[in-house]
């Protein structure tokens, strides 16, 4: 049973470009979470999605950031017009849902904005 | 506003001794608590969890204690091993499946 997969593992973008981060959840998991880890900080919740639905996006910046989890294919975290402050590690986690609540994390995508 | 706090950024323990990692939270609506372990350049790995209706959960060398009145939980590792050296994150779940993470404690187990 493959774990949570994220790609790319490393992404370099220049200011103003777009970054697309992909996450394939574990087989059978229909819940996906995105987190951001800035240097010297903990994991910050960004968004929680189920298939085709955004359940909670209270942790997402209001502008430039969007997420989706289509019926088919991976979940995508999209950052438009990236700025240097977007440089961070972005982790995706999947869960089978309630009542377990336990999340399984991918290896992360390290985004560097030049 | 940090709802889950790990006030010790680092901890060093001698191999074979007990490691105690602490975590405090502010939201009484949290119903589930988890500990994750993270190695550099990897994603966090689930370690152990506890429901808010319990005060202790044990799994091998790892035990989590929950004190709801103090809004405090701790992770005990005994005996500590060098392979336990990692960053440990405490997390709490609010109903609705939103999770809040602490800032982590870096544990070093000295051989």
Detail the topology: elements first, then pairings:
The complex is a heterodimer of chains A (114) and B (111).
Chain A: E1 5-7, E2 10-13, E3 19-24, E4 31-37, E5 43-50, E6 53-56, E7 65-68, E8 75-79, E9 88-95, E10 104-105, E11 109-113
Parallel strand pairs in A: 2-11
Antiparallel strand pairs in A: 1-3, 3-8, 4-5, 4-9, 5-6, 7-8, 9-10, 9-11
Chain B: E1 4-5, E2 10-14, E3 19-25, E4 30-38, E5 45-51, E6 56-59, E7 62-67, E8 72-77, E9 86-94, E10 98-101, E11 105-110
Parallel strand pairs in B: 2-11
Antiparallel strand pairs in B: 1-3, 3-8, 4-5, 4-9, 6-7, 7-8, 9-10, 9-11
Textual characterization of the structure:
The complex is a heterodimer of chains A (114) and B (111). Helices cover 0% and strands 49% of the residues of chain A. Chain A is mainly beta and 114 residues long. In chain A, strands 2, 4, 5, 6, 9, 10 and 11 form a seven-stranded mixed sheet that branches. Chain A has a four-stranded antiparallel sheet with strand order 1-3-8-7, with no helix packed on it. Chain B has 111 residues and is an all-beta fold. In chain B, strands 2, 4, 5, 9, 10 and 11 form a six-stranded mixed sheet that branches. In chain B, strand 9 and strand 10 (98-101) form a beta hairpin. The radius of gyration of chain B is 13 Å and the shape is globular. In chain B, 36% of the residues are buried. Chains A and B meet through strand 4, strand 5, strand 9 and strand 10 of A and strand 4, strand 5, strand 9 and strand 10 of B.
